[in-house]
Amino acid sequence: MGGIFAFACRSPRDGSAILEGLRRLTYRGYDSVGVAFLDDKIEVKKAMGPADRNPGLFSFTSRVALGHTRYATRGWPTVENAHPILDCTGRVAVVMDGVIDNYEQLRSSLASRGHRLVTTTDTEVIPHLLEEGKGPGDLLSALRGTFSAAYVRSGDERVWFVQDGQPLVIGRGQDCLYLASDLPSLYGFADEAVIVPEGSYGYISASGELSVFSADGSPVQQLTSKRVKYEPGSLDKAGYPHYMLKEIYEIPEALERTTHSLMDKYLRLSGMILYGARRAFIIGNGTSLHAGMVSAYYFSSLGGMSIDVVSAAEFPYYALDSVGTGTVVLAVSQSGETSDVIRSVKMAKQRGAVIVGVTNVLGSRLALESNVYLPIGAGPELAVPATKTFTSTLVALMLLAAHVGLTAGRLSQAELNELYNDIRSFSRSLAEDMPAIDAAASKIAGELRDSRDAYVVSSGITYPVALEGALKLKEAAMLHAEGVQLGELRHGPMVLARGNYPIIVIKPREEAAEELYSRVMSELRAREAKVIEVSDSTQAALQAPRAPRPELYPIAAVAPLQLLAYRVGFERGLPIDSPPGLAKAITT
Ligand code: G6P
């Protein structure tokens, strides 16, 4: 995955334009950066880290240049795997944003036909297919996945592109045409931009030509244009005031990406490892721990297994004595760098445990320490309060639990396919519902602005979501909130439930919890507590979107809570993305 920025100009242009474009696309990933430009032949320069840290790469002038900033999903973050990637002859240079699902078959058939593949990426199949004389239309039919790609060829002053699910836009400046992954990156380069339609290909040329074709080769006649209107200061946040809000709005897209990012064979392998485990633990900290707690319900309902969930900080004291050969530790960490997780993983490995890592960062220490790792592929998350990585981790763990069920014979392949379909259709409906959820959260945020404390209450699969909602209120809104199990509310915490004390109740999805829920709700009403209900009922103060199956309900329920925490923090004028004294990952 990553960001693409290219130009094709009538007269030679300074490479600093690519640097600026990629800098604005850094939010799409920054494991490595690279650029190709046309001289007598194609010149390629690559380096590790973001564009900002590698300005030297862009000291060139050329009429045609193509840059990329990478978020590693297939293939480690290394200089070799950085884009652009060349074919065997060095005459084609390709960059890509997205994933190609069938790349392994393509890589082996290309290798058997004598191609030299020097990276471990999925992108590399493209330059070699082009080398064999395939055209951009052939790429649309040969490649399965969600991606957009762009390439330059030596002796051809055009930037070619293929769009199959990842965004691309084209802007026309005075002397140049620009191709980019998003509209804001074109600010100052072009006033208007054409949206490249999905399932199309085309080129921009140094002579000022722009052509777009449908997959069947017919020219696309009507192209939609949009104004490029963002202020430079807000570019990296794509117009959102904070990364946290942007990342919440990215949840639906990230869920979809998670389903593509997780490869079937690694899910199967991890599923088999867990199924064969004598004892299994899930470890993580903070939000990742909460995701692990939700997944214990998945492992029970989908996988038919029970699994212990322990804070990675507590694992050495709680569980280490019972760890040995036959133990599997499922380690969950967004950053893959959290020291408690790494320490516990190392200790468990020393005692013979097998480690299955679940992380958003491919080259992280957790990925390196794991026997098998599952990349959640949610895209870079920059706000300290984790949001889209929580929901993507839930999907990753849900799919893993389903693969345990598949191995155990509890679930058929058809049922697994149905789960994938449900996740994808749910993410589409969540995208539509997001503005309405945000509006409701904003309204309630006004009521909570002056509150000092709150409870977030639930039971069953949404009990860990209550813990996560309380964590978000602490991190983003600096509001002291406590996650409480619904039944436990009556064993002490209820003492505070009066007057204006806010109690956010996520209605449990489990039928067995209904009676308890009604009893607690009437007790709360009798005490005239300030109850804020989260459920998919139209009566709820914070209405969650409808989840097509119980496993997706935690995702439906957490989105309103994340937005509420964000909106309270916003009302209070807090530094939401980097709360005082916190860090995205505690690495020491
Ligand atoms: C820090 C962050 C939390 C995060 C936790 C675990 O404490 O402030 O927001 O949930 O680390 O991070 P990880 O990268 O391991 O998921």
Describe the model.
GO terms for molecular function: carbohydrate derivative binding; glutamine-fructose-6-phosphate transaminase (isomerizing) activity. This is glutamine--fructose-6-phosphate transaminase (isomerizing). InterPro entries: GATase_2_dom, GFAT, GlmS/AgaS_SIS, GlmS/FrlB_SIS, Ntn_hydrolases_N, SIS_dom, SIS_dom_sf. Its EC number is 2.6.1.16. It catalyses: D-fructose 6-phosphate + L-glutamine = D-glucosamine 6-phosphate + L-glutamate. The radius of gyration is 25 Å and the shape is globular. It has 16 helices and 24 strands. α6 runs parallel beside α12 and α8 runs parallel beside α12. It has 588 residues and is of the alpha/beta class. The strands form 4 sheets. An 8-stranded antiparallel beta sheet has the order 3-2-4-1-10-9-11-14, with helices on one face. A 6-stranded antiparallel beta sheet has the order 5-6-7-8-12-13. The chain has a 5-stranded parallel beta sheet with strand order 16-15-17-18-19, with helices on both faces. It has 3 domains: 226 residues, Aminohydrolase, N-terminal nucleophile (Ntn) domain (Glutamine Phosphoribosylpyrophosphate, subunit 1, domain 1, 4-Layer Sandwich); 175 residues, Glucose-6-phosphate isomerase like protein, domain 1 (Rossmann fold); 147 residues, Rossmann fold, CATH 3.40.50.10490. 6-O-phosphono-alpha-D-glucopyranose binds next to α8. 6-O-phosphono-alpha-D-glucopyranose (G6P) binds next to α8.
